[in-house]
């Protein structure tokens, strides 16, 4: 979970998370291992005094869907009997320095294509500088004389 970029990742796929859903998840994470009742969620996330229960239910359902929870066996968010929710896994808080290092590592791993691309550009430039001298003349001749061309190839055995 990256609260700054508002993303959830399972290590392979990164999912964008709506700001309000991220705020609900952060509220649950900050309260871990205690549960957060609906009133507290509404005041912290929606910043109002009264809100329909359906709005909170929808937010929790969307979060569970993103996290891969199901109703029979919750893995991340548990509904408490008295109208609250609790995070089942302990959050691991990462410092800004660690986030910067991870971001740098991600940039480096995504830049693997730069060297092959530079090699391709170098090869194209080298080809332009070292191509056969008659190449331009042949290309010009073919452009000036469009049509079908027949090429005869001598059989090496007949020579």
Provide key terms for this protein.
single chain, mainly alpha, Arc Repressor Mutant, subunit A, 3-stranded antiparallel sheet, two-stranded antiparallel sheet, 6 helices, 50% helix, 10% strand
Topology at a glance:
Elements: E1 7-9, E2 14-16, H1 19-31, E3 36-37, H2 38-46, H3 53-67, E4 77-80, E5 84-87, H4 96-110, H5 114-130, H6 135-144
Antiparallel strand pairs: 1-2, 3-5, 4-5
Structural features, described:
By secondary structure, the chain is mostly helical. The chain has 2 domains: about 5-85, Winged helix-like DNA-binding domain superfamily/Winged helix DNA-binding domain (Arc Repressor Mutant, subunit A), CATH 1.10.10; about 110-145, no CATH class. Helix content is about 50%, strand content about 10%. The protein contains 6 helices and 5 strands, in the order ββαβααββααα. The chain has a 3-stranded antiparallel beta sheet. A two-stranded antiparallel sheet has the order 1-2. Strand 4 (about 75-80) and strand 5 (about 85) form a beta hairpin. Helix 1 (about 20-30) packs across helix 2 and helix 1 packs across helix 3 (about 55-65). The N and C termini lie far apart (about 75 Å). The model has no long low-confidence stretch (mean pLDDT about 75).
